[in-house]
Amino acid sequence: MPIEDCRIIELPKIEDPRGNLTFIEGGRHIPFNIGRVYYLYDVPGGSERGAHGHRALQQVIIALSGSFEVTLDDGQAKRSFTMNRAYCGLYVPPMLWREIRNFSSGAVCMVLASDHYDEQDYFRDYQVFLASTQRP
Ligand code: TYD
């Protein structure tokens, strides 16, 4: 089940009294080649993002600032993660429905993705996603 493959990746953290520093190197810290980076910000209180699945895209989700909750669902089981550390990434393999909610004020959600944006890779309808997860 894809849900068993999602995990928190701890990124390097260089602690410094002047402020901490985290870095991500391609081919080293992330289990795929980074093809795209995008981020959610200025999220109004109570707003929810996500509510879709991906056929092939892999992602790592990082709370660069503030906090939010990610719920992953493979059609049989769900797992929720509170993201609130800029040095922790949530690895999201393909074929998981994801919902992101409870954004704190000022939260920034950065997503590293394995490929360019492609609407054909999305499941936008939960019932269609569920049907595609059923084994014969
Ligand atoms: P979407 O992935 O549906 O965001 P969410 O599920 O969080 O609401 O994307 C919202 C819109 O932004 C949609 O019209 C597609 C567009 N978009 C891009 O053009 N490029 C991207 O890399 C992403 C992630 C979205």
Mind explaining what this structure looks like?
- It is a single chain.
- This protein is mostly beta strands.
- 6% of the residues lie in helices and 41% in strands.
- The chain is built from one helix and twelve strands, in the order ββββββββββββα.
- The strands form three sheets. Strands 1-9-6-11-4 form a five-stranded antiparallel sheet, with no helix packed on it. A five-stranded antiparallel sheet has the order 8-7-10-5-12.
- The structure holds thymidine-5'-diphosphate (TYD).
- Thymidine-5'-diphosphate is lined by residues 36, 38, 49-50, 52, 117.
Based on CA atoms alone, the radius of gyration comes out at 15 Å
Structural class: mainly beta
Tell the overall outline. Answer: globular
Listing every helix as H and every strand as E from the N terminus to the C terminus, the arrangement reads EEEEEEEEEEEEH
Give the amount of beta strand, in percent. 35-45%
Cα end-to-end separation: 15 Å
Query: What is the averaged pLDDT score?
Result: 97
What is the total tally of β strands? 12
Low-confidence stretches: none
Major beta sheet, strand line-up: 1-9-6-11-4
Bound molecules: thymidine-5'-diphosphate
Largest sheet: 5 strands, antiparallel
Query: How much helical structure, as a percent, in the residues?
Result: under 10%
Question: Helix count, per DSSP?
Answer: 1
